[in-house]
Design a protein that fits this description.
There is one protein chain. With 411 residues, this protein is α/β, with parallel strands linked by helices. It is built from 14 helices and 15 strands.
Length: 411
């Protein structure tokens, strides 16, 4: 086992063994599979993949989660994002699609915040293939925003056309990616095969000459051999497909990644594939398949190109910190603190021990909120690592989230 990773339970190990058997049988049938196909099976194989099985994924370590996304840190994230979504809905239609809604926390926070802004959507669609996650999202919405449940529905596929706002928070990084190697004698794809060792068959990397699609995509990359990285054809295809279906409105995508010239920098040789398990990061995608999230950094230049080529305008690109600040995160944090102080003053007007207990509880909550916002904004945390890009059709310029610090020129 990789050092410092907690051992999985017997039940989790058994589920991983079943998924490994499925992957092994496919490799034996074809002799080799691309890493993109392996990643697809490891994350999305029905009933067994990381996102398709029953394992708890979102949350802190004490709850058994593997990682925390921004909405789980604080509802202020959704409240700030709502300030950008509201004018998009006003300029198009009151319809929101959230791709990959995770725990459902962002959906609940957005619905409540948009309602407070006077722009509650008439329909809130969630594009989610995992039955387990759909159930969790429904539970979260019933707990935090029950008054909007009748406006929420789940999609199996994208609508033929839509007008409104599509949101994707940490969706692109989990799309299957191809791993490739530039060598002096050409471009090779690094896929998955089987190797024999003392304990039997095991999954291992194996190279083949790259497909023409990968060769074509690699031509525009600033890479000199020898070099190893990833090319996500899936991200390009997904953005292009969405762009063709968006009649009016905007796509707002938040994820960790870089513009092309930084992502394929010579010092980043080795690629960006990372695995997440119990709030630990490791680099072995073959460790207990199905139990770790597998991600890679997003090429935001490719995202912008895919949207632009499909007829959309690039409405803005910046860091998550700058986007949230532009959307009033500081004001929201101050308002949150003032409300807690007001609660404390109300409590102290009531004699007895309960007022002191309430005051301490509000102080702890306020400190947690301040700490969460610091994580969202700090350049050493999510503030700089995560980026936000907006693509749209028929939208006014500039969008609120990009009024300052827009980095479209860097794409």
């Amino acid at each position: 086992m990789i050092a410092n990773l907690p051992a999985p339970s017997a039940e989790a190990a058994a589920a991983s063994a079943a998924l490994t058997d499925l992957i092994t049988r496919e490799i034996k049938t074809h002799g080799w599979i691309s890493f993109a196909r392996y990643m697809e099976l490891a994350l999305y194989a029905p009933g067994l993949g990381y996102y398709a099985g029953g394992a708890h994924k979102f949350g802190d370590a004490s709850s058994g989660g593997d990682f925390l996304t921004a909405p789980e840190l604080t509802p202020l994230f959704g409240q700030a994002l709502a300030r950008q979504v509201a004018p998009v809905l006003a300029a198009s239609k009151p319809y929101v699609i959230e791709a990959g809604a995770g725990s459902g926390r962002l959906a609940a926070d957005l619905l409540l915040a948009l309602d407070a802004l006077g722009h509650a959507p008439e329909h809130y669609a969630i594009l989610e293939l995992s039955g387990e996650l759909r159930a969790r999202q429904a539970t979260t919405l019933a707990r935090h925003a029950p008054q909007f449940l009748d406006r929420v529905h789940w999609l199996d596929t994208l609508p033929e056309t839509f007008s409104g706002c599509l949101i994707g928070n940490e969706v692109l990084d989990a799309m299957p990616t191809h791993t490739v190697c530039w060598r002096e004698n050409g471009l090779f794809e690094r896929g998955v095969a089987l190797a024999e060792n003392a304990s039997g068959e095991q999954l291992t990397f194996a190279e083949r000459p790259a497909s023409q699609a990968l060769i074509d995509a690699a031509k525009i990359l600033p890479v000199a051999a020898p070099y190893r990285s990833e090319i996500s054809l899936a991200v390009r295809a997904w953005v292009a497909e969405l762009a063709q279906r968006l009649s009016q409105g905007a796509m707002i995508l938040l994820d960790y990644g870089l513009p092309r010239r930084e992502l394929y920098h010579p010092q980043r040789d080795g690629g960006t594939v990372r695995c997440h398990y119990r709030h630990r990061v490791h680099d072995d995608p073959f460790w207990y398949p199905g139990l770790s999230d597998i991600t890679s950094h997003v090429d935001f230049t490719a995202v912008a190109e895919a949207g632009f080529d499909a007829g959309l305008s690039v409405l803005g690109y910046t860091s998550q910190a700058q986007f949230l600040i532009n959307c009033g995160m500081g004001e929201l944090l101050q308002k949150n603190g003032e409300e807690k102080v007001g609660d404390d003053e109300t409590a102290t007007s009531t004699p007895g021990m309960q007022s002191s207990v309430d005051s301490r509880a509000n102080l702890r909550t306020n400190l947690r909120t301040t700490g969460a916002v610091s994580v969202l904004l700090s350049p050493n945390e999510m503030g700089e690592l995560f980026k936000v890009i907006a693509l749209g059709r028929g939208m006014p310029h500039p969008l609120l989230g990009f009024t300052r610090g827009d980095r479209v020129h860097a794409l």
